[in-house]
Design brief:
alpha/beta, TIM Barrel, 13% strand, globular, binds 2-acetamido-2-deoxy-beta-D-glucopyranose
Length: 456
């Protein structure tokens, strides 16, 4: 085979990889620390990583502002202390929405409102029904404003909402929570919203190290724990997710698909004997790998599970034991606590940097360009344009008024021009044409008239 054919063939293999949909991963961004970087810096830090969804614990306006036009989706939260107020009537919920959320959309992509955090298992807060009422009021607000498809309402639970979690197939919610859980799950089902669970194999292991296999807790591929119904669990997180699934089914929602979302999971690097850098690195690495796959659990193999890693930073002002302050992947100064690969094969060049670049897509390869996908989300496209012409360093004069590529004056056309320039500038690695899934490598020259798309 000639060198040229080899190159073309390799390129086709790369192109087929591009079409393979790698899912992004979520991260929890808590801010209970006095040494954390500014939200603006955090948004920049995250843009070069696999994390494309961020969950916060309030509606901090500085954070909402910092994540505008980043292409990163946000889950924001109603603090537990606000739930009573929002539960009282829709007009309270509307006020909350108008002051906390409305000013930031759509430039900040807020996709979900998490109402409270582990509210039902917080000993201080006994009015369970207030949670449901607050969720329903917020949903009504979204509905009345025509935003109910864009923004979902849910609430993260701890595993303590279960009466028992083993075996997974016979788990049920605690008896006292059955009425409120039935209302909540019905609302989630009606509104096509996810059931959120904070699932920590770490705590199960820490509290019972002699009974639990560490590899099983660490998401290892162990020989497995067999459920009486025949499901085989190779790791504890899958068993925890299916325990929740069974409890939902036991409420009578078995014939509906309610998506389960892991709103928190992680492993601390300090605080007790199993909280080591090595275990934290192992768990979070495997969790991130798992989150990228199109993979469900033994009970429902086809239902992909979205995961939000806990947490972005070590938070030095958090209450509780030492481990509570050491769940972070990053220190306050932005350095990693331990080595974990957060690079995104399709959006940064850290992972394969150099290797493929020099051997396959060197300047002697066939001509290729990068353009915007025709049906890509316009908001993301706009964010990509802003990035390329700003921090991305592309010379965008040709798409400004009087430039040769100003016409057609369409955001897709301008973004294609900028994407291509960025892609060519960075050595034409296929991951430099990802742009959060909105870029496309093409063999046909997009140049027209006097508008010239550079290539090498
Ligand atoms: C909503 O509830 C609050 C009490 O929290 C009350 O002050 C207010 O008048 C109520 N508004 C409506 C429209 O009922
Ligand atoms: C309830 O929340 C609304 C909007 O956030 C606020 O204006 C009002 O003062 C709150 N009421 C109480 C009793 O806290
Ligand atoms: C887990 O182990 C089993 C049996 O050893 C193997 O068949 C399977 O492919 C492994 N799965 C993963 C994800 O490594
Ligand atoms: C699910 O089951 C309920 C009660 O068993 C029934 O009323 C409902 O129609 C079923 N829904 C679907 C989509 O099958």
């Amino acid at each position: 085979m000639s060198l040229f054919c080899t190159l073309v063939l390799s390129l086709f293999i790369l192109l087929s990889l591009i079409n393979y949909n790698v899912h992004g991963v979520g991260i929890n961004y808590g801010t209970i620390g006095n040494n954390l970087p500014s939200p603006k810096k955090v948004a920049q830090l995250l843009q070069s990583t696999i994390f494309d969804k961020v969950k916060i614990y309030d509606t901090n306006p500085e954070i909402l502002e910092a994540f505008s036009n980043t292409g990163i989706d946000l889950i924001v939260a109603v603090e537990n202390s606000q739930i009573k107020n929002l539960s009282e009537n829709q007009s309270n919920a509307d006020k909350w929405f108008v002051t906390r959320i409305l000013p930031f959309i759509p430039s900040t992509s807020i996709v979900t409102i998490a109402v409270g955090n582990e509210y039902l298992t917080d000993d201080q807060l006994l009015d369970h029904n207030a949670l449901f009422q607050a969720m329903q009021n917020l949903h009504s607000v979204l509905l009345s404003r025509g935003l109910n498809r864009k923004i979902k309402v849910s609430t993260p639970h701890s595993m303590a909402v279960l009466a028992s979690s083993f075996p997974p197939s016979s788990s049920t919610f605690a008896t006292t929570l059955l009425p409120v859980m039935t209302s909540i799950v019905a609302l989630l089902s009606d509104t096509n919203s996810p059931f959120m669970i904070n699932a920590y194999p770490y705590f199960a292991y820490r509290d019972n190290p002699s009974m639990v296999n560490l590899e099983y807790a660490l998401l290892g591929n162990t020989s497995g724990v067999r459920d009486p119904k025949g499901y085989v669990y190779t790791n504890m997180l899958d068993a925890q997710i299916d325990a929740i699934r069974s409890a939902i089914n036991a409420l009578g929602f078995g014939n509906q698909t309610i998506q389960i979302l892991v709103s928190e999971s992680g492993w601390p690097s300090r605080g007790d004997t199993s909280a080591t850098n090595e275990n934290a690195r192992t768990y979070n690495t495997r969790l991130i790998q798992r989150a990228q796959l199109n993979k469900g659990t033994p009970m429902s193999p086809k239902d992909r599970i979205d995961v939000f890693v806990f947490a972005l930073f070590n938070e030095n002002k958090k209450q509780g034991g030492v481990s509570e302050r050491n769940f972070g992947i990053f220190n306050g100064d932005g350095t990693k606590v331990y080595d974990v690969d957060l690079s995104c094969e399709f959006c940064s060049n850290e992972k394969f940097g150099g290797k493929i670049e020099s051997s396959l897509l060197s300047s002697r390869g066939p001509s290729v360009w990068c353009v915007a996908k025709p049906h890509a989300d316009e908001k993301v496209i706009q964010a990509v344009l802003d990035f390329c012409c700003g921090p991305g360093g592309v010379d965008c004069r040709e798409i400004h008024e009087n430039g040769d590529c100003f016409q057609p004056d369409k955001v897709y056309a301008h973004t294609s021009y900028a994407m291509n320039a960025y892609y060519q500038m960075h050595g034409r690695n296929y991951w430099n044409c990802d742009f959060k899934g909105t870029g496309l490598v093409t063999f046909s020259d997009p140049s027209y008239g006097k508008c010239f798309y550079s290539h090498q």
